[in-house]
């Protein structure tokens, strides 16, 4: 909504909240990109940067929660303003978990970089591509209040799950064969698992974007095809 | 089964002389629910409320079109006696206004006016009514002292007791907490939630949090028009009209 609030401080607080979430999303995405770059290029220094930068993401999560509480307490927002506050706090929680997964990847990258190069690491690239795309699209859906894009993340995540399963099956087969690289295969399985979880968390953010746009809670809904149909949007009970 | 159109407002317009302040209002107010009327000053919400017991009849030069029906019968039917109507529709005002009498006499005032003076009946009414108004425990030992000795919040609850002593069907409240502190306000809100078991309540309020806390339905009026009327949660979570969202969000110029 572009009409300014009667209390200027409210608009300033809401702007600050949005900026903090976008800043946190940027840092989280950077952490993920750097973690995977560290893994794929065997860059120990980059792994260390990701591990250190996670503190910034944690701090941003705390700031967003504090700012959200402050807005709720002082201004009692309603309707779409209330959804902005609630959604921002939920998105920041999902971003923090994504950043934690980036740190897990970076830690494994650091360990693997000390050992001989493993060609199978490249198998994770398609999983990573989809996870990163999910994160970007989910934040786009949140920023633009685009429920259509928010809902589409679930479909995309199914493709990520499919590739993830295939990669896990192949890595598990190698792991069962045993040998001196077993520990590295195990690292890759956990990295793949983190990427798959990042996809799930992006779906959560997409659902938050739908709530922001339509005030509709689509979590755990199986049939999402009809959600955007005007007949099924947020059934408001008639007053009379 | 509570009636959904207990108060049926049908294409109702109202003017003070040449100034038309309500424009074709249509809304059905359900029985034994709390309905809040919200909107900026001058939007017509108090005028609409006061028409529900024809209080505006007292003002010279007023005119109306359309109808308001109470339980299916027009308030403007020539056979309706305003005195009888007001027995069915109690009213509580913004500024608590107990009479310069004892607490007891304030409660039984309308009964005495109606010629009901039997002591045992009056005693029963006083206890029952003050209990309903959540005031009995605080005043039972000083019923025959002046009402002015009560705190502001207690005086307002006494006015509510006075309004419901005659067992009206409807309770109209015009900003009943505007002159009260936060604690007294919350007590009245709590009382409103209890009273809806017995009465149909219509409340005018400028306090958005109060409307969202204690009403089942909310109507937003603007410049004499009914902009939106729906379940309160719906109005405050996902209003249909942009003007409603702008008003409740504080973005109204």
Automatic annotation (TrEMBL), chain A:
Plays a role in the regulation of phosphate uptake. The keyword Transport applies. GO terms for cellular component: cytoplasm. One of its GO terms (biological process) is negative regulation of phosphate metabolic process. Belongs to the PhoU family. It comes from Haloferula rosea. It comes from the Bacteria. Residues 23-108, 130-208 form the PhoU domain. NCBIfam families: phoU_full. InterPro entries: PhoU, PhoU-like_sf, PhoU_dom. It is found in: Cytoplasm. Homodimer. Pfam families: PhoU. This is Phosphate-specific transport system accessory protein PhoU. Keywords: Cytoplasm, Phosphate transport, Transport.
From TrEMBL, chain B:
Keywords: ATP-binding, Nucleotide-binding, Phosphate transport, Transport. PROSITE patterns: ABC_TRANSPORTER_1, ABC_TRANSPORTER_2. One of its GO terms (molecular function) is phosphate transmembrane transporter activity. Residues 7-248 form the ABC transporter domain. Signal peptide: none annotated. GO terms for cellular component: membrane. InterPro entries: AAA+_ATPase (IPR003593), ABC_transporter-like_ATP-bd (IPR003439), ABC_transporter-like_CS (IPR017871), P-loop_NTPase (IPR027417), PstB-like (IPR005670). GO terms for biological process: phosphate ion transmembrane transport. This is Phosphate ABC transporter ATP-binding protein.
